[in-house]
Write a structure and sequence with these properties.
- It is a single chain.
- This protein is mostly helical.
- The protein has one domain.
- Helix content is about 65%, strand content about 0%.
- The protein contains five helices and no strands.
- Helix 1 packs antiparallel against helix 2 and helix 2 runs antiparallel to helix 3.
- It is elongated.
Length: about 170
C-alpha cells in the first residue's frame, strides 16, 4: 500500500496551517448576544405565562442591561484590538470596572419601576450572564492566536532546521 505524502519526506503538508483569526470581537459579540438573547426570550415567555406580562418585561429589561454592558467591552476590544492588540487586555480590566459602576448607576438612577418584578429581573439578568459567558468562552476557545512568528524563523525556503537547537546563536 503506498504511503501518503507527508511533510517529513519532503512533500506538501496534508493540512495547511491556518492563519490567525482576523478581528474576532464582533463575531464573539454576535454569538454572545444571540445566546443571551435566546435564553432571555425563552425565560420571558415562561415568566409571562407563569406570572404576568410585567414579569416577562422584567426579564427582558434585565437581559437588555446585561447585553448592553457586556457588549461594551467587546466593542472596545474590536476598536482597540486593531490598533493596539497588546493594550486590549488592560482595557478589558478598565471596562469591567465601568460595567459594574455603569450597571449600578443605571439601576440607581432609574430606581425601581412599579412594573418591575425583582425576582424575574434578577433571574433574567443572571441567566443572560451565564449564557453570555458560556458563548464567549466557547468562541474564545476557537480563536487562532499565533504565539510565534513562524514565517520569520523559517529562514530560506526549504531550509532544514539546525540539528542542534543552540546552533546559529
Amino acid at each position: 500500500m503506498p504511503r501518503p505524502d507527508h511533510p517529513a519526506n519532503g512533500a506538501q503538508p496534508l493540512v495547511a496551517a491556518a492563519e490567525a483569526t482576523a478581528s474576532p470581537w464582533l463575531r464573539i459579540l454576535a454569538r454572545s448576544a444571540a445566546a443571551g438573547g435566546a435564553i432571555a426570550l425563552v425565560l420571558a415567555v415562561a415568566a409571562t405565562l407563569a406570572t404576568s406580562a410585567a414579569a416577562g418585561a422584567s426579564v427582558l429589561f434585565g437581559a437588555a442591561l446585561v447585553i448592553t454592558f457586556f457588549g461594551i467591552s467587546l466593542l472596545i476590544g474590536h476598536f482597540t484590538g486593531r490598533t493596539n492588540p497588546s493594550g486590549a487586555l488592560g482595557l478589558f480590566a478598565v471596562t469591567y470596572a465601568i460595567k459594574v459602576v455603569g450597571f449600578a448607576a443605571v439601576l440607581f438612577l432609574l430606581g425601581t419601576p412599579d412594573w418591575l418584578d425583582r425576582t424575574w429581573f434578577f433571574t433574567g439578568a443572571l441567566a443572560t450572564v451565564v449564557a453570555w459567558q458560556v458563548a464567549e468562552v466557547f468562541a474564545f476557545s476557537r480563536l487562532r492566536t499565533p504565539l510565534y512568528d513562524d514565517a520569520a524563523s523559517d529562514g530560506p525556503a526549504g531550509a532544514a532546521p539546525p540539528a542542534d537547537p543552540l546552533e546559529g546563536r
